[in-house]
Design goal:
Layout lengths: L1 H19 L12 H7 L3 H22 L2 H15 L3 H13 L5 H9 L5 H22 L4 H4 L2 H19 L18 H22 L3 H30 L4 H25 L1
Helix pairs in contact: 1-2, 1-3, 3-4, 3-9, 3-10, 4-7, 5-6, 5-7, 5-12, 7-12, 9-10, 9-11, 9-12, 10-11, 11-12
């Protein structure tokens, strides 16, 4: 029994990486309920690896490249590490929800592989915002102080996905990516948040952040994540009658952008 559970968790870890990143892991795992319901626990781990890669690339670029070009390159790497999966969800969600059509028509638009005007506009604005925020954090040596956020932001944006999956119904009953995670409940989502907290504390500890400051920052990050994710999820649920795989990606992008914005506001408030 213990052996089977360990095997399922190992498969769940691999599934989380294969589903959320483009890290080449040549291991085949069954994408079925027992594995995928556990995989959400490891969503923050996949986010942490993305963040570590971003941190390393940022450090290297900061040695030779000015802030703005570095920010654009980091953002390109950030998008590539997830295969553009979440950005695609952001665009599809914008196309559907901002069309102001009927619920059925909005879901049809989101399912269409073509990108409309609203999706393009939303993507351009999001990328401009993220690039500008990254540039501000890279200016004047602020990177050393706020660099850990590049690890923590992807952790919590992906932890929120687990809460969204557990907390709101699937808008497309019986179809779409979201249906793969129908067995995810609050215990798995809670475990995902615990995992995110542990990884965040480790990140602050490695960065040498003081205990009191780390706890305050962690509390702020959790509150921002829940408020942002909860507001968007409730709004989308009202518009669509549930959530979809695209909306999970959209919330991931929104939370990452909000946490970067909060770091810049914190920077200028000091």
């Amino acid at each position: 029994m213990v052996r089977r559970e360990l095997k399922l968790h190992f498969q769940a870890l691999i599934a989380a990486f294969q589903f959320l990143t483009r890290f080449p892991i040549p291991i085949t795992v069954p994408f079925q309920g027992s594995v995928l319901s556990r995989s959400v626990v490891y969503f923050p781990v996949a986010g942490a690896f993305i963040g570590i890669c971003l941190l390393a690339c940022t450090w290297l670029l900061a040695l030779f490249v000015p802030a703005w070009p570095s920010a654009v390159l980091i953002l390109a790497i950030w998008t590539a590490l997830s295969g553009g999966l979440h950005l695609d969800g952001w665009m599809d969600t914008a196309d559907g929800v901002l069309s102001h059509r009927s619920r059925e028509r909005m879901l049809e638009i989101m399912k269409d592989s073509r990108v409309g005007a609203m999706g393009v506009i939303a993507a351009v604005l999001l990328l401009l915002l993220k690039a500008s925020l990254l540039a501000e954090l890279l200016k004047g040596g602020h990177f050393e102080q706020h660099g850990p956020l590049l690890v923590i932001a992807p952790i919590w944006s992906r932890a929120w996905m687990s809460a969204a999956i557990a907390g709101w119904p699937n808008a497309r009953q019986g179809e779409g990516i979201a249906v793969l995670f129908n067995e995810v409940k609050w215990p798995q989502a809670t475990a995902s948040f615990v995992m995110a907290a542990i990884l965040s504390v480790l990140t602050f500890w490695i960065a040498g952040t003081g205990t009191n400051v780390a706890l305050i920052m962690l509390l702020i990050i959790v509150i921002l994540t829940i408020c942002c994710g909860g507001f968007i999820a409730a709004w989308l649920n009202r518009k669509l009658g549930g959530l979809t795989g695209d909306t999970y990606g959209a919330m991931n992008e929104a939370i990452e952008a909000l946490l970067l914005l909060a770091a810049v506001i914190w920077l200028y408030a000091q």
